[in-house]
Specification:
By secondary structure, the protein is of the alpha/beta class. The chain folds into 2 domains: 134 residues, 3-Layer(aba) Sandwich (Leucine Aminopeptidase, subunit E, domain 1); 319 residues, Zn peptidases (Aminopeptidase). Helices cover 31% and strands 20% of the residues. The chain has 12 helices and 19 strands. Strands 7-8-10-9-13-17-14-15 form an 8-stranded mixed beta sheet, sandwiched between helices. The protein has a 6-stranded mixed beta sheet with strand order 1-6-5-2-4-3, with helices on one face. Strand 3 and strand 4 form a beta hairpin. Helix 6 runs antiparallel to helix 8 and helix 8 packs parallel to helix 11. The longest helix has 22 residues. It is elongated and about 80 Å long. Bound molecules: ligand BES and zinc ion (2 copies). One zinc ion binds next to strand 9.
Amino acid sequence: MTYKHTKSLDVLQDFILPCRKDNLDAIKEFLPIDKPDFDGSFSTYQLLYGKEGNRIYLIGLGEEKELVKLEETFRKLAFETQKHWDKTIQVYAEDLSEDQIKKAVIGFEMAQYQIGEYKSEIKKDQKTVVSFSSSKTIKKSLDEGKFTGETINKIKALVDAPPNIKTPEFLGKWAKKSAKEADYKCTVLKEKELEKKGFDAVLSVGKGSVNKPVVIITEYTPKKTKKVDITLVGKGITFDSGGLSIKPSTNLHYMKSDMGGAAVVLGVVELVAKLKLNINIVGVVCSAENAVDAESYRPGDVINSYSGKTIEIIDTDAEGRLVLADGLSYAVKKIKPEYLIDLATLTGSVVRTLGYHAAGMFTNNEEMAKTTSDIGYKVHERVWQLPMFEDYESDLHSDIADIRNFSGNPLAGATNAAKFLEAFTEDHEKWMHLDIAGVSFGSSPYAKMKSASGYGIQLITEFIKSKVS
Ligand code: BES
Ligand code: ZN
Ligand code: ZN
């Protein structure tokens, strides 16, 4: 799809008429009839025909509080009706703010996502031109919306990709290609370099798979100074069988999505580069496959890590915290960023706690917590803060190593995982961990089975924007 700005609406051609709940008066002048069967409820629409037989879609923006998820209204309309559209469709955007126009474009873009990438017959791309009529200057909103929507679709395609194709090496190739296209730097560390550099925890998790682990480092650093403003670390488990502490087979196929954190990191760096934000960002993706094999690491093993701390493995299914431990240590030792954020589909516990509507947020930095929480509401990718009290620390004490990867107790699982990560941050003062296990992948009206949501791209990009000086 392409997006265009026009000053006025041609009422004899097809157009979309956004309408707030119970506010038909605001759009009365464009209505061909007095009382359409429509009240502006969120994510509803009504098709009317104009004088020339042109299509007029009334679409519901709902109440004030629902405006934060405006994408959804446009996404649904486009998803269900775009096959009938002519070459151009207009949007009456006079009453939409620049931010709302951006959200609308994101919605149109999200409707272009094709989940059936691996079907033998692929649907043709929609070539519609969407023309927003507004007296404001909206070029920036259109461009940002398009880049954001495209990135969301790209990371969704990654998360939805099958694990036999989406190996750690595949993620590395994806990042290299993206770096070339969006003009940033990408380094993929393979097995030999990981051994040399001491990424022992990543290597241990990946030992049981023929698809060898990688660590991907993406760097977008446009500023004159070398100081890195923000480092993002992502969990990139391309398939989590649980390892020798094997998971039950029900829903095991969904564990292809255990690289949702990595996808956000890869997507955000690409998007920030495309938006040309004046901020130095580094992404670190720790990717491995947690497989079952004679070579697999075992419960009971003591492994080493990038930090030098030894870890007693209690459960090989608590593998995400191990790869992240190396990513975080690498970030604090080598990159030394001002802000450090990690994203991971880390625990079933966070899903049981918060369900599918918010990510678990862990930080000792209240400013980061407040900023992230506020942005979360604004972009409708919400977070909820969970505790980091010292009292949880003793759960991770090991008799024989510096730390153990699981208490053995099914209590406070998301906090325990966060406390484990904290042990590898060298008390970094601006560190935040987001457990996105419940929000990164799930049910939606757009697919039969669970699928990627795209959660995190807007949240983290807006957080980064808030730190551009
Ligand atoms: N990848 C899982 C967490 C997960 C669960 C993600 C559900 C998405 C949906 C993670 O590696 C895991 O298995 N965590 C265990 C840890 C436990 C063994 C300490 C969990 O949460 O059950
Ligand atoms: Zn696991
Ligand atoms: Zn996992």
